[in-house]
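Lab notebook, page 48
Experiment: co-folding of the full assembly
Goal: obtain a model of how the components sit together before planning crosslinking
Operator: M.T.
Materials (sequences as entered):
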Amino acid sequence: MNIPERTIERISQYRRLLCDLKKHGRKNVYSHDLAERIGSTATQVRRDLMLLGFSGNSKTGYEISGLSQKISELLDNPGGEKVALFGVGNLGRALMPFFAAHHQDLRIVASFDIDPDKFGRVINGCRCYSSDEMGVIIPRESIKVAILAVPAGSAQSVTDELVNAGIRGILNFVPVSLQVPAGVVVENMDMGMALEKVAFMARQIEKDLNCKKRGRDKT
Amino acid sequence: MNIPERTIERISQYRRLLCDLKKHGRKNVYSHDLAERIGSTATQVRRDLMLLGFSGNSKTGYEISGLSQKISELLDNPGGEKVALFGVGNLGRALMPFFAAHHQDLRIVASFDIDPDKFGRVINGCRCYSSDEMGVIIPRESIKVAILAVPAGSAQSVTDELVNAGIRGILNFVPVSLQVPAGVVVENMDMGMALEKVAFMARQIEKDLNCKKRGRDKT
DNA sequence: CTCTTATCGTGAAATTATTCACAGCCTAAA
DNA sequence: TTTAGGCTGTGAATAATTTCACGATAAGAG
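Observation: model returned without errors.
Model output:
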């Protein structure tokens, strides 16, 4: 049972949506309803849920709480997942309350920085350690997942230490392509790339519309 | 000449890499070199550059400054692209210096919030306005691209106003699926999804390795 | 009871993205 | 001059992903 990466992404989105719906008192949901809300198609939703191994029925669609639970069984670590944050700068400090608010399953339990002023301080409910201590603390707490938000210049060297310390998954906010050995996963949150892309695509669409319009005018 | 979205993303990454290489005094680069650095394949790089319409040669590979320029011609708006930031909270304030440092072509020229304490203040070199003013300022400055970093509850309503005001591309940091009319592009920076995914994949890989190991042991 | 309607589940087709395979080119060495 | 080696450009093959198309199911209307 191997679920493609794209499907994993959508499943995470489905769960968020399902939580919202649950809060609004909804008990059931149709594939086309989910699809519309995440900008996909009903077929796609049904196929994803098929891969997940969850069945609905033709009259009421999918049962929300059962589906949420099934998704949690797939995505969540039993007992929660500890996360370490590297780089307690502007971005790092902004991320802490964000994840605290939206994800109780993913807990940032330690942060690391090279600024001695921060050592020992508790920032956003999370103790900040010296980067030198990661080799001790990460194995001790058996932390497997890290968020990287350090300056570009030190991203690779921190990554190397981090992998040594036992980290297996990195959410990378630094606009640098990290080199990691096999067995370690990197997910890039490339904000610069995303902004360039969205600007490009907005221009592109505008251009296409103009072309079509002009095309119509001529005809 | 229609370039697929995936290729656009990689092209943006190539450019960043090329700038680094240029700073290090490199003049030329081979496809396999670029590929290694972004974790792709030489063939993929060559095909991307082919779509871009840039040629190298068999002895020296690709000429870095020429290629950078070609990429800029594709991705950049002549005269730069003005960007507006919505939501000057922790995240919003962290994003301003980030983009200022990494992207001179994409300039955040205005920010908006609903907190009256912030109106009129200049934060990170950027004036903060009341959200009520977006209908005036966005058309006046002909801003087409927006970064959305508001609380989840107001994301959709701000989006609606924003589209009304003439925004055509939105980089969305809010964990909510935005509904927009045709002709408007949304790019989701779904940090929660990304963290869930990286945690899942890290566990997955570990599991796979164990399976393989056990498989070997038995054989 | 039968018909209509709305939905799910899924094999198969279509589409999109990536990789293979190799011709062609250039340079340096023999 | 010839040969070998390393690289680019790209048609064709392959793989991944999405969409189509349709049978199955259930429930309400007539």
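Interpretation: The CA atoms of residues 172 and 188 of chain A lie 5 Å apart.
Next step: discuss with group before ordering constructs.
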